[in-house]
Design brief:
287 residues; 18-stranded mixed sheet
């Protein structure tokens, strides 16, 4: 059996930047074991599988599809960059004729709309709650060492811990942090945390004027560091929207690859995440 696969760099307009995802459009469902084996073989932070809901649909005319995301080690409930990349494959490679496609996922229905040269994700917002830093001192230490921390928040629904560096820190502090994934994973074994967001206030007066910066680490899901993470911004946007008093924000995830996200917090408890993509590989998996 031969299966088409695409590798798409998401949240960037340049190849080899942003976050790469493997996208696999399938005419028929595969076994759980095979999904996981393919994701392990692709060895990217996420491999996404698109399947038809209505057997009479195809990828060109259908408007609703099922979407699942797998890391090299396990399935996840929400992934932004692989959703963006999946929409790009449908619109750009499969020439889907609809202005919007809807993905049925473990996080509910997710809509993606074409907008100019990019796409807009309609995602749930995941507001975090403030925590006592002493309750997470080991994981904070493993993440930022002795650098000063201003806030510690937890999104219980996504199991993402947000650690904000103090405003006295320069951006170089965030970009130069060397986070050991093994040390980070061993610092938290309760199951309450499956990902760590490191963030700091941006400099909106510069060009292009980023409102905040971040990095994201999830060794519990087999991802030492994720280059650009849509799902972490469902937490970050809620936090920074309140801190900055803004609904529309521009964010930069400053991993080594880097990526830019345009964000709009909506009044209905959801968020629009906009970004661009570049397809860098198209091939065939032989099973």
């Amino acid at each position: 059996m031969e299966i088409a696969v695409f590798v798409v760099d998401a949240f960037t307009n340049l190849p080899f930047r942003g976050n790469p995802a493997a996208i696999v459009p399938l005419m028929h469902e595969l076994s759980e074991e095979l999904y996981q084996k393919i994701a392990a073989e692709m060895n990217l932070s996420e491999t996404a599988f698109i399947t038809r809901i209505n057997p009479s649909d195809d990828f060109t005319k259908g408007s609703r599809f099922r979407l699942r995301w797998f890391t090299p080690t396990n399935e996840v409930k929400l992934c932004g960059h692989a959703t963006l990349a999946s929409a790009a494959v449908l619109f750009q490679k499969k020439k889907n004729v609809n202005p919007t496609v809807v993905f049925e996922t473990k996080s509910g229905d997710l809509c993606v709309t074409q907008q100019g040269e990019g796409f807009v994700l309609d995602f749930p917002l995941n507001p975090p709650t403030q925590q006592d830093p002493n309750d997470f001192k080991d994981i904070v230490k493993a993440s930022v060492g002795d650098h000063p921390v201003q806030d510690v928040y937890l999104s219980a629904s996504t199991k993402k811990l947000l650690i904000r560096l103090a405003d006295s820190c320069d951006r170089s502090v965030l970009t130069s942090l060397k986070v050991n994934p093994d040390t980070l994973q061993s610092s938290e074994k309760s199951g309450k945390v499956k990902g760590v967001i490191l963030t700091m206030k941006g400099s909106a007066d510069g060009q292009p004027g980023y409102d905040f910066y971040s990095r994201y680490f999830s060794p519990w899901n087999g991802i030492p560091e994720d280059p650009v993470t849509g799902s972490s911004h469902t937490v970050l946007s809620s936090y920074w929207s309140k801190k900055l008093g803004k609904k529309k924000m521009l964010a930069y995830q400053c991993s080594s690859r880097g990526g830019e996200l345009e964000l709009e917090v909506r009044d209905d408890g959801r968020i629009n995440i906009a970004g661009k993509t570049v397809t860098v590989l198209q091939g065939t998996i032989t099973i």
